[in-house]
Amino acid sequence: MTDANERTERGDEERRGATPRVVVVGFMCAGKTSVARELARRLGCAWADLDERVGERERRTPRQLIEEDGEPAFREAETRALAGLLEEESGARVVAAGGGTWALKRNRALVARHGCVSVWLDAPFELCWRRIGREGGAASRPLARDRATAQRLYDERLALYRLASLHVDAGDGRPPAALAEEVFEALNSSAG
After folding, report:
1. Is residue 74 predicted with pLDDT exceeding 90?
2. β-bridge partners, 8
């Protein structure tokens, strides 16, 4: 019985090793964290939220960093945190990126250099804006202080999000479990 259990565990480890790291990208409140969590559950691996990692490393929230030091300082901290996550061999296999992470060429290059699959959660602006409002609006999102600013940012980033390896339609109120399942199936079909 022990031999069978050991073989199963080795098989699980081999399958996890064969699964590339996944970086979930998209606009703020597109559902990246929820989908990353669900996808990691399906894959049986660890996951991380990049904004949380930035907060842990910098001892301030992303909002505090942006408000106190400006967006460029936050973006530098974000890139350092992303590099740290991707360099950890036994670290998270699934990463929920911040809304602007993918907009920077250096971050896209990091993701590519580490052989990650980038997944764009394509949520329509109206859905994101409603969620931003429910999560505290401008008080929690310094880069979306008002609708016009958020819309402009969304429009600017759209072409960059389209550069992701995998596109998932996150509109129409699709639940995170369904979105994660779509990503899971796409990963399995590309591995086979």
Report:
1. yes
2. none
